[in-house]
Amino acid sequence: MENQVITVRNLVKKFGSFIANDNLNFEVFKGEIFGFLGANGAGKTTTIRILSGLSAPTSGEVNVSGFDAYRQAEQIKRNIGYMCQKFSLYEDLTVKENITLFGGIYGMSRALIRTRTNELLERLHFHEYENRIIADLPLGLRQKLAFSVAVLHEPKIVFLDEPTGGVDPITRRQFWEMIYETAARGITVFVTTHYSDEAEYCERISIMSEGKIVALDTPENLKEKYAADSIEEVFIKIARPVNN
Amino acid sequence: MKRFIGFVKKEFLHIFRDYRTLFILFGIPAAQILIFGFAISTDVKNAGVAFLDLSKDETTRKLTDKIISSGFFRRTENLVSYNEIEDIFRKGKTKEVVIFEKDFGKKLLSEGKANISIIADGSEPNTATLVTNYTTAIIADFNREISGIQVNNPILIQPEVKMFYNPNLQSQHMFVPGVITMILILICALMTSVTITREKEFVTMELLLVSPLRPIQIILGKVMPYFLLSFVNVILILLLSWLVFGLSVKGSVVLLLAESMLYIMLSLSVGILISIVSSSMQQAIFISLVGMMLPTILLSGFIYPIENMPKIYGLISLLMPPRYFIIIIKSIMIKGTGFMYVWKETLILLFMTILFIGISVRKFKVRLE
User: Fold this and answer.
1) Is the confidence metric ipTM above 0.90 for this complex?
2) Which residues from B are below 8 Å from A107, CB to CB?
3) Does domain B44-164 have CATH number 3.40.1710.10?
4) Dihedral pair phi/psi, residue A55, rounded to 5°
5) Which residue, among B8, B10, B195, would best test binding to A if mutated, counting the most A CBs under 10 Å from its CB?
6) Where are the domains of chain A?
7) pLDDT of A135-177, one tens digit each?
8) Which of B18, B210, B213 to probe by mutation at the A interface, max A CB count within 10 Å?
C-alpha cells in the first residue's frame, strides 16, 4: 500500500530461549496514531526498540519509512524521533541547550534550530524556563519538552515508549493534545502504553500479550467485537483471560 | 561534522557545570603536586641524625657540629657500637646514621684520606635520598674548607652512602613524573568511563544511539573534551612544579608533550574499554580505581622500585602502561635524554593504544540488546 510507513512481517525477537516478540504482523499508515497496549513485559518495548534501530530483529521483515531495518538502520535513524519510557533529556543542561543539542545532532541548520526553538517555547509557554536546567523542571513539563524535542526535526515517525508514565492526569491530557497536533502535521505517532484509557485516544491499537499481538483494530471495532464498554474491558477479556 | 561539534560542546557543558568533575580535573592534580612537593621539602628540616663516632677526635667533632648546625639535622643520639644502628632506626626518630671510622682524624692527616659511612632509613625513600644528599653536600663543603688550609696536600673524606632496608633506592624526589602518570590515568580512565556509563544509566545513551550520530562519533565526542583538558592538565602540572618548586624539564618539552599525548590517548582508550564492560557508574569507578589507580601507584615503579619487587609482580608490571610512561617521562624530564632512548617504551605504548582501541571498537554495540 502507498502510505504504509511501517511494515512488519513475521517479526521474531528472542533473547536466548525467551521469545519477546513472537511472530508479529502489522502495518502503520502515514499520519496515524498507532497504539501498542500491553501489560509490563508483554514485549512492547522490544518491538519499539527494533523499529527504531536500537535492537536487531532475530528474524522477519521490518520496514520503517521505506528502509530495511537490517541493512538501512542509518537511514531509518534520520527519519524517526524517539522518546523513551524513562525521561530522557540531559538534566544538567538548560532547556535551550537541550533543544540546540538535539537539533544539531539531527543535522538542522542553526537558523532553523533558532526558529523552531522559538516556536516550541511559544507553543509550550516555556519562555520563562528557557535558561533553566532540566533538573529544576517538574516532571510533566519535562515530558512535554522531551516530546517536543523528539519531533523537532520533523521526523516521518515518532516512537513514544510509555511517554506518560508517572505523569498526572491533567498533564497526560495536555500531552495527548500535543500528540494529536503532531499527527495532524503528518507525523506518524507510534505509542506504547499500559494505560487502557490512553489506548482509546489512538486511531488503531494493537493489544499485546506474552509477545504476541492478540488483537488489532480501531478502539470502536474492538469494543463492538468484544461487547465491551471500554478498552479496559476488552483488554481484560482477551489479554488476561480469567483462570479456572 | 556539525553534528559532532554540537555534541562535543554539550560534553564540555557537562564538565563545566559539574563542580565535582572540575575539581577532579584540576583540583586534584594541583593538590597532588603541592602535597607531594611540600611534604618532601619540609621533611628535611630537623631530620633526626645519630652519630657513631669510633674516632672521637677534633676533626670528627668539627664535622659533627657542621652537620648539626646546618639547620637540616637534629642530633637524636650518640651511638657506641654498630649493633645499635638497627635499633635506633626501629625507633623511627632517626632518619640517618653517620659513622666515622676509627682514627678518622689521624688517617686524614697521615694518609690524606678517611672514610665516613652514611646509613639512611630506606623505608622512607624520599627522605632517605634527601638527607643523604644533604649530608654528602655538607661533607663536600667540609672537604673544601680543610683542603684550603693545606693546599699542598689535598685531603679527602670519602663518604660512603648506604640505604637500610631498601638498597636499590631510586631517585624518588622527582615526584612530578609519577604524579603526572597517575593523574593522567586517573582523569582519563576514570572520567571517560564514568561519562560514558552515565549516559547508559540515564538512558540518554539510547537517544544518542537512535540518532544519526555514528557510534565512533559518539565515542570520540565523549572523549575529545577529556583529551584536551588532560593535555591542559599536563601543561598545568609542569608549570606548577616549575613555578613552585623550580623543577624544569631538562629534555625537549615538545617531545615530552608528544609522549604525554600518546599516553593520554592510551588512558582514554582504557577508559572507553572500562565503560563498555561496565553497566553502571559505580562499576566503572570501581574498575578504574582498583584496576588502574592502585596498579599505577604500586606496580609502575612510581613509589616502589620494580627491581625490588618479587619476580611475579615485576612480570605483572610489564602489562602496566604507566610503567613505560614513567620511564619515558623521567628520562626526558630529569635526565634530559632524547627520543633515541625512549623509542622502545613509546612503541609499547603505541601498540597498547591500538590494541585497546581495537577491542573497544569491536565491543561497542550500536544496538543495545
Assistant:
1) no
2) 2-3, 212
3) yes
4) -140, 145
5) B10
6) 31-55+77-239
7) 898 888 888 899 999 999 999 999 998 888 778 888 888 999 9
8) B210
